[in-house]
Design goal:
Elements lengths: L1 E3 L11 E4 L4 E3 L2 E3 L2 E4 L2 E3 L2 E9 L4 E3 L2 E8 L2 E3 L2 E9 L4 E3 L2 E8 L1
């Protein structure tokens, strides 16, 4: 499991974790900040602030976050407690739960 905490940062500082193109993470990812997926993740993602899945990004597992912007693929349930933005290239195969949704 990949876990990142923002212990030394103030409340206004943002932590962004990037899973780069060509990178594959097998296991769960957890962060208090934002996780950006440009590669692939096979496991669940929990992000305190946001999850961004790029055009060529792939998540095979569950996603839990406040805000999500999806341009790539999610194969599993997606829970965005506050807001979900789906780009025209997004593909989701699974259950979606959110308060507000914006479709491109």
């Amino acid at each position: 499991m990949v876990r990142e905490r923002q212990n030394d940062q103030g409340p206004g500082d943002a932590v962004i974790s990037i899973i780069a193109p060509g990178m594959t993470v097998i296991g769960n990812c957890e962060s208090d900040g934002t996780i950006r997926v440009e590669g692939s993740v096979s496991g669940s993602i929990k992000a305190g602030k946001a999850v961004v899945v790029g055009k060529k990004g792939l998540v095979s597992g569950e996603v839990f976050t406040q805000d999500a912007v999806i341009s790539g693929r999610v194969e599993g349930s997606l829970v965005a407690a506050s807001r979900l933005e789906l780009k025209s290239t997004a593909r989701i195969e699974g259950e979606v739960k959110t308060r507000r949704m914006q479709l491109e």
